[in-house]
Amino acid sequence: MEIVKVLLKSEESITIDKIAEKVNVSNKTVRNDLEKVQEIIEENGLILLKKAGVGISVNGPEENKINLLQAITNRNNYIEPYSSEESLLY
């Protein structure tokens, strides 16, 4: 999800190298995750644009970008409550 956040926050196309640097993973990891990233982007009414030699960007309504970014942020801030078994342990 961090890759999606980087893409949504970027005003311009961003290279795989830059994405990898920002999320602290290898280029290969970014490339491997791009299929899932594209699914998430498209499920939210957006388009993932990949231009050789230029980079990657997200295209679509600004409202969709904001909604997806908020959903990711909210998901990352959600703390799973303890299950009944975990409650007994803690």
Automatic annotation (TrEMBL):
It holds the Pfam family HTH_11. SUPFAM superfamilies: Winged helix' DNA-binding domain (SSF46785). InterPro entries: BglG_antiterminators (IPR050661), DeoR_HTH (IPR001034), HTH_11 (IPR013196), WH-like_DNA-bd_sf (IPR036388), WH_DNA-bd_sf (IPR036390). The keyword Transcription regulation applies. Keywords: Transcription, Transcription regulation. PANTHER family: CRYPTIC BETA-GLUCOSIDE BGL OPERON ANTITERMINATOR, TRANSCRIPTIONAL REGULATOR MTLR. This is Transcriptional regulator MtlR. It comes from Clostridium magnum DSM 2767. The gene is mtlR_2.
